[in-house]
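ugh ok fine here u go
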Amino acid sequence: MLGITNLDPIRFKLLFERFLNPERVTPPDFDIDFCMRRRGEVIDYVRKKYGDQCVANIVTYGTLGAKMVIRDISRVHNLAYADADRLAKMIPDELNITLEDSINNPPN
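structure:
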């Protein structure tokens, strides 16, 4: 056991639900993100220390809905929130709608 649940999260500014929830059944997990420039060095070190069989790369894939794409692109291009919201609301509330479909079938 790592003992990470015995620390005071407030003292160390660790305001994570996993530390603060006494009803959590499983022990908390944690991860560390490394800068991509030297990430390979860290992976090599861990492989040498613990062995290849103890090291794995995990990938998470996600998708964005059409409305979220509009909002994210608008944010990146510094478009006003009100304009982004107006554009996003032009997309019909239809599950799995594509941007192309929303252009061809605008809401009434």
